[in-house]
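Mods, move this if it's the wrong board.
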Amino acid sequence: MARSLKKGPFVDHHLIDKVVKLNKGGTKKTVKTWSRRSMIVPEMVGHTFDVHNGRKFISVFVSENMVGHRLGEFSPTRVFKGHGSKKTTEAAAGKPA
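Not the wrong board. Structure tokens:
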């Protein structure tokens, strides 16, 4: 369910404070965050965030197209290693001689 327009986008206070501080100083340092739930707002465009995915930090450079999405969408938590290859399926089926 979407958030009410009256409330506005949710961004953790500590994260938006860091972004505002970087914008005032004019610096482009990487911001390390665990806040995957925070919405990307226009003030974040041009900054790089290290978003935690449960195991490590993934670098996410924010562009204009990302506004309105959440930080966690760009830091995948699962690694798809593919379905069984042809060799493994043949070995499991017991290739007839």
